[in-house]
């Protein structure tokens, strides 16, 4: 122990160099998330005439490193709702495992016949997201909320800014560019939902996941899909996990110029 | 979102001073779209397109920007800019009007508690200023147009910038949002009769301003938005119009705009 | 004179296991004029008898709207009811704000029950001196709850609180089986009849002293006061108290529940 108490308990300067006061300095501003670290890519979802299909792959990336390949980014919340998250995985886990879990526990604890449905959970999440952005401490995610509500399919989005919107077909991240055109082809507007069957919806979502895997470098070939189907007040949610991308064809890769080994 | 990444500033540490840090988080976004409001003598039309954008993406084709502030109120608010702030403002205004309004005559005592009668347009206008200016140092990034009928059934219209500036006298027409620069000159000419002269006066006598009939205003609104849709990528999909009339009550209409 | 040593605060049990301050609070409810509530499969109704302290003054408020699907009728200390109803309004507002959902009736009732219970367990506090009938409609249908200052809440098909409410309860007990399928109008008339039974001798139901509120599955909470009550009183027909001058009562006379002796209910002027 030397004569400088402020150096006690710290690595010795003569060996490790001067302490960088940028770390763990009480006078520094609080550290907030200012950029995501471990991230999940797109979530895609489509309404059909009896519910909603939502899917997200199982990859968590650390920058360009495919860090975790078994991450679940869809969560069932209560009996009517599935939430899908893209963006920062730790923020997603905070929302899923802490906030939403607690929300449902305290709701069901009342045991009075009332349950939070999709629109309630969506309202809650968008308030949380907007509140956190207003504190300059955002949860770095885009969330899609899919469910069955008031005898109709429900699908809406909220993000790290608290921006909210809804539509018959939604996708976050890369999906907003690559999947949305495919989804809108079969479902241009709310009225079109009535003509889309469950099987159709599933196959369109499968197609989207495939295209995303082809073109999104932060995606993988294993994904989860949840199918929320309802009739009146009854809701059923089917979770399909570890779905492998089927019928891949990389023939198109040969025709891509400028990136591969081919010359001209 | 990620394509509109915020600029990253280099860390600037003053030698010997406290190390400084900067946030790489931009709490605002621009969700596109446009709104307008036109007041007649005893009616007004508030309108907005229903496209919601993020950069070149269309998030939704069906998001409304015009809000009625109470079921029994003639007050209407249109907001455009950063979608989350815009919605927050609409929610806040709805709650304020709800509390002051005798909601279905059950909130009678709330009215007395706050010593307020039904919230008047000018009271709502001043209140909206208070809300916006109250957030002066972390502004709600939304442009607002507020309209309604006063006690005598006359239409009043107010428009705001994000920190609350507005004219207490109100105005005849207002436009805001992505295509406002396209719509404002059109309304100048068609509502305020700017650059219109009485025929035969060799451009010496300006055409006197007069209130327009409802049918005419409705046509102007539709023309304004179909034109804006042609020339602005963030405007389109649907046109939501709320028509408040002293004689016929409140009516809402949604017509299609081009979706390209 | 006998002095009760166990009623100085609300945290001390008497050797008999009673908390006197809480019991006194329950007495305060009986000092207030009567309020009646009842539910059918589609509607919930609150009806209350208002007093005016003096000729020159207005009638006291007996029914308070909380939200478009919810309201309360009170008996006892009106200021305490305002505290509770303001709290309920806050709960209702935050439920709408956070979850985009009208607050479930049972939730808001349990919330005030918890508040009231706390007062019975902390030194230096006093229980609320008011009883409430909470009527509302939520996703599980129409509901009627009774709230007591002890923190006790119970759900009812028909309930009455306040002065001479026993007479109303007797009527409700005899007729409750028909409430379920009753129409909106029948339900209100049952309520008015029950309320009429609480009237003191030579009193009658008037547009000045009756408050009435209806809420239904497809009907927002609406309070009827003053002239708005006239049509209902017309439908009721006889508005006279059945006490004393018995000849006047044509409707099924409520069996006279022997008014408890020493019941100084003549405050009902």
CATH topology-level name of chain C: Glutamine Phosphoribosylpyrophosphate, subunit 1, domain 1
CATH class of chain A: Alpha Beta
Query: Mean pLDDT score of chain A, rounded?
Result: 91
* Spans where pLDDT lies below 50 across 5 or more residues of chain A: none
Oligomer category: heterotrimer
CATH superfamily of chain A, by name, is: Aminohydrolase, N-terminal nucleophile (Ntn) domain
Query: What is the alpha-carbon Rg of chain C in Å?
Result: 18 Å
Number of self-contained structural domains of chain C: 1
Beta strand % of chain A: 25-35%
User: At the third CATH level, what is the topology name of chain A?
Assistant: Glutamine Phosphoribosylpyrophosphate, subunit 1, domain 1
- Distance from N terminus to C terminus of chain C (CA atoms, Å) equals 32 Å
Instruction: Report low-confidence residues of chain C grouped into runs of 5 or more.
Output: 246-250, 253-269
Helix content of chain C: 25-40%
Distance between the termini of chain A: 68 Å
Structural class of chain A: alpha+beta
Biggest sheet, spatial arrangement of strands of chain C: 8-1-2-9-10
Question: What is the strand content of chain C?
Answer: 15-25%
Greatest contact pair? Answer: A-B, 33 and 28 residues
Secondary-structure element pattern of chain A, one letter each: HEEEEEEEHHEEEEHHEEH
CATH class of chain C: Alpha Beta
Helix content of chain A: 25-40%
Family (chain C): Belongs to the peptidase T1A family.
Keywords (chain C): Cytoplasm, Nucleus, Proteasome
Biased composition (Low complexity) (chain C): 248-261
GO biological process, one term (chain C): ubiquitin-dependent protein catabolic process
